[in-house]
Amino acid sequence: MKIKKHVLFAFTLLLTLVFISTGIAQKSYKELSYPKLNDIQIPEIERIVLPNGMILFLLEDHELPLINLSARIGGGSVFEPPEKIGLAEITGTVMRTGGSATMSGEKMDEILETIAASVETGIGRQSGSASMSTLKEHLDQGLSILADVLMNPAFPQDKIDLAKVEARSLISRRNDEPREISGREFQKMIYGGDSPYARHSEYAAIDAITRDDLIEFHQTFFYPNNVMMSVWGDFDTKEMIEKIDTAFGGWKRRDSEVPVLPAVDYQFDSSVNLIKKEDIHQAYIEMGHLGGKRDDPDYFALIVMNQILGGGFTSRMVKTVRTQMGLAYSTWGVYGTDYAVPGAFSVGCQTKAESAIDAILAMKCEIEKMTQASVTDEELALAKEQYLNSYVFHFDTKGEIVNRLMTFEYFGYPKDFLQKTKESVEKVTKEDVLRVAKAHLHPDKLRILVVGNPEKIDPPLSTLGEVNEIDITIPVPEEEKPEATRETLAQGKTILERAIAACGGNENFQSMKTMHIKGDMTLITPQGDLAAKMEASIAMPNQMRQSITLPMGSMTQIYNDGQAWIVMPNGVNPLPDALKEELKNRFWRMTGYLFAHADQDDLTVQALERKTVDGQECEILHITPADAKSLKLYLHAETLLPVKIAYVGLGMQGGPGDMEEWFSDIRDVNGMKTPFKTVIFEGSIKAAEIVITEMAINPDMDPAVFQPETK
Length: 711
Hints:
Elements: H1 2-25, E1 46-49, E2 55-60, E3 66-74, H2 87-97, H3 105-114, E4 118-123, E5 127-135, H4 139-151, H5 157-172, H6 178-191, H7 203-208, H8 211-221, E6 227-233, H9 237-247, E7 271-276, E8 282-290, E9 292-293, H10 299-310, H11 316-324, E10 331-335, E11 337-338, E12 344-352, H12 356-372, H13 377-390, H14 398-410, H15 417-426, H16 430-440, E13 447-452, E14 467-469, H17 486-503, H18 506-510, E15 514-525, E16 528-539, E17 543-550, E18 553-560, E19 563-568, E20 571-574, H19 577-588, H20 591-596, E21 604-613, E22 616-624, E23 631-636, E24 642-650, E25 656-669, E26 672-682, E27 685-697
Parallel strand pairs: 2-6, 7-13, 7-14, 9-11
Antiparallel strand pairs: 1-2, 3-5, 3-6, 4-5, 8-12, 8-13, 10-12, 15-16, 15-27, 16-17, 17-18, 18-19, 19-20, 21-22, 22-23, 23-24, 24-25, 25-26, 26-27
């Protein structure tokens, strides 16, 4: 009986819970209410100015035995010369990788790795940066290295060359991704292609940067009264101030001022712009105009307006363009604001090319609506709630808190700016949103950018107005060719003929029709040496197949009379134009091929002044084929055997660089002297080493070797 009562009670309770939960489930989300968020208690941060002018912001946090430091240095890439764009970034990189006058970058890496610490430096658009993270017990060592890097960078040439190689590599790949193209070119449309807030580097600018430029840039901006430093972690504030003062005590203050940031010159107007990219099916759209600054009194209402227009899944952009019209998976709208200069207002999406015009008109319509009528009570409440609910994440860590205070002071904002922003957003009304939308949005003056294939955009972009096509071709530096005279041309021809005779004779080289080579290759990378096997087949005059086998797989490049392919484990693809051109130039960089084709009427050979290279006196020939880039051939002055070649070609990371190939271990093969070892340098950086293990001259060769294999 007792059991039955318990069962009956449980059954009754279950029915009651089901009834209650059903009632709750039927309640509208609009009727739910939440208590006001608790006030956030912001810890007190101590601000100190050292005798040398360095400003410190300190916040103790004894939860873990860790200490972190972040520095902000007045300056930035906005102040680099326009003909040397990239100088600031390279300076910031090599300050750390190059080490100091007393300790190499590699030694710093070794010490920091041993104590599980890090020290980093960099220079961005409007400021430089430095950071240190270490266990409390290793603070003195970490702080000493940081101070050494900031005060006494060595800027060794090999690290500068490596940074320039990496910069060229980034330039070479900047047009790979459509989204990156649209973002970069939209910034140039807003600020101007030559503006320090949008410009980007080119190969010629990187080539022009010298070690003296890095030294001067560092000396101009790195001095203690131009540095702010935030420190947080497990320390005693008084003791930390003393340690930093001691570490940077030898750094003398300077009576200098950082130049004022350049002004932004902008006229509101409309335009339609196209970047033709025929290998994609989507259209990448970005449109907008200049935005604002955070010290604008309208900033707080603009936060709410932006949230309603394009901020997340509840925004009008998403509801209309994605949900209702189904034109795009991703769409956005951002009224950009910055501390010191205006940001950019942009809306955009990625859609199929055939829908580009519909998407543009739909986004423009939503911008117009923001300026024509008040938002709803629900939109206002939700936008404010989303911002205010995210407010707490500004206080996730002690580092966020202290670094934000440093940022506010750097740009001249009050230290309670974030708290004032929260309070002001809470007070924003529907009338405020409409007022700032009318004042700051210009739907009739939008600059529109589309990246895509114009053949697939239907109706065409011209339905929106005259289309301006933007050329994003990456300019390659022009070759510097020495002025030729009748005398230097005659000397060049004579020296080349003597070299051919010394290496085996004209008859031997001209009888060479095919060649097969196998060898071992070592690729020199920042992460360490990488061993590979290489194999190459050449058929005169214009067929080549070369393969590299690495531990992770193989890659084959094929050139056949103007056509070129790359064969990877995942399939066959046409070789990009830059790589195809490089393969064509590769023929002339083989001494055997060069000697075999030296009798061509359109081959220009010019003698340059003799020089001593690596202890060897050399004859130098500047050689220019009719259909390929020029090169310099260095010949031993006595034996006339090849010592090296020098040329401008694609480096190991994809960008053009000053390449050199040094030859050694010269052996006789079928009566022709051939180098069996080649060491390749990019600038002063050793990039690869090739050792030939097998070489066959005039083997039978199947023509199918020079066609891509298809499955």
